[in-house]
Amino acid sequence: MNQEIHARAERLIAQERVEGIPPADHDWLSTHLQECSRCAEHARHTEHALRSLRTMAIAVPSGLASRTQFRVRLRAQELREREPQRRALWLACAVSWAFGIASAPYVWRLFQWFGERTGVPKLVWELGFGLWWTIPALFFVVVVLMEKLRQGNESDWTRQSR
Prior knowledge:
mainly alpha, 0% strand
């Protein structure tokens, strides 16, 4: 027989055990295994090897499961503790941005009025209005960066305690 046919059969044997194969390929493989003793023997050896692996006992270090469970619980607790703070931060940002959008025409008029009254150049009071818009975003960035730095310091501490 053609080597490509045997190579396809071996590939399908392995694929069938791992991820499954389409019905058409399964039918072709079944027919081929009935006709080809070499590929049928390969399929039996593969099945025997997998069965042996499933029954093999693997020794793991003592306490591995309990240490893993402890670390998972610790991480879950850490995430639960931080979640409300983040939710409050997002809520505060949303309220701030909504208020900023709603009040933008009034603040624009206020800056314009102040600029005309004091004789400040138009570019300066327009930049002031732009800064009024960026301060909440800058505050948000500062809070997020502080949080990241705190997380980095905590991870350094947890690495040292191992």
